[in-house]
Amino acid sequence: MTQQHSDPKLVAVLGANGRMGAEAVKAVEAAPDMKLVAALGRGDSLDQVTAAGAQYLVDLTVPESTEANVRFAVEHGIHAVVGTTGWDAGRLSALEALLAEHPDTGVLIAPNFAVGSVLASAFAAKASKYFESVEIIELHHPDKVDAPSGTAVRTAQLIAAERSAAEVPPSPDATTSELAGARGCEVDGVRVHSVRLRGLVAHQEVLLGGPGEQLTFRHDSYDRASFMPGVLLGVRNVASHPGLTVGLDGYLDLGI
Ligand SMILES: NC(=O)C1=CN([C@@H]2O[C@H](COP(=O)(O)OP(=O)(O)OC[C@H]3O[C@@H](n4cnc5c(N)ncnc54)[C@H](OP(=O)(O)O)[C@@H]3O)[C@@H](O)[C@H]2O)C=CC1
Ligand SMILES: O=C(O)C1=N[C@H](C(=O)O)C[C@H](O)C1
């Protein structure tokens, strides 16, 4: 019996000279069902993406570039898998409006591609309604340009949604005087603290506290290889999920 081979997925990587982009180039090149047709850095024309016939665009650039890149992809019917941070509510709703005009095109905005991180955030959010207090500590390499991390923002949003649905009051906090920043920042009512330290890659702890007990969800990415299975999963699934999906959990069966 002859085996059926489907055509490889034609993939363009944007931000190809960056820490994540360089890793994604290697991962796509090594994937048996994909072909890297374009690898662009800052200053390269997006026309290279269409000229190469890319069907999928992986965006691993910088917050100020990503929106224009993704809009270009959608306008050309190219599915986009996006790891870049900076997708606030305004950008997401503008993208949804654009996708409504291109109903066959899919976009995945994944604040974190590491499956362990996605699981830790989902589990922490589910657990958070059973605890009085919740705070997030995210720890990253010092070359990161944004704070708090996209992952921490997403985790805080998931936690806030769970706690609000369960009508859990805000975490108690008696602070009446503080040095600026001592209590971190607030995302949807959840305190987030950002550490930047040489030697780190990407790490996060969600601390849940109740009377006499603490539950901690911690995830560590020690290497950017940890993100690559999620990038490839995104490319393999984005076309069958037209419209906007936020979070890799949208493609996983978490069953929670
Ligand atoms: N979702 C996830 O799992 C992960 C997401 N990230 C996020 O991915 C993004 C990239 O991270 P990282 O690789 O560490 O950052 P880097 O700064 O190492 O890489 C970004 C690269 O994008 C390039 N670039 C900027 N604008 C464009 C453009 N318009 N077209 C093509 N390339 C462009 C930059 O060029 P130049 O150097 O000239 O500016 C740089 O080489 C960040 O937002 C980060 O938070 C990171 C890790 C995991
Ligand atoms: O810049 C990084 O490195 C990372 N960025 C993403 C984020 O902001 O959450 C994902 C991961 O934490 C690594």
From TrEMBL:
Q: Is Oxidoreductase a UniProt keyword of this protein?
A: yes
The UniProt keyword set, sorted, is: Oxidoreductase
Record EC number: 1.17.1.8
User: What name is this protein filed under?
Assistant: 4-hydroxy-tetrahydrodipicolinate reductase
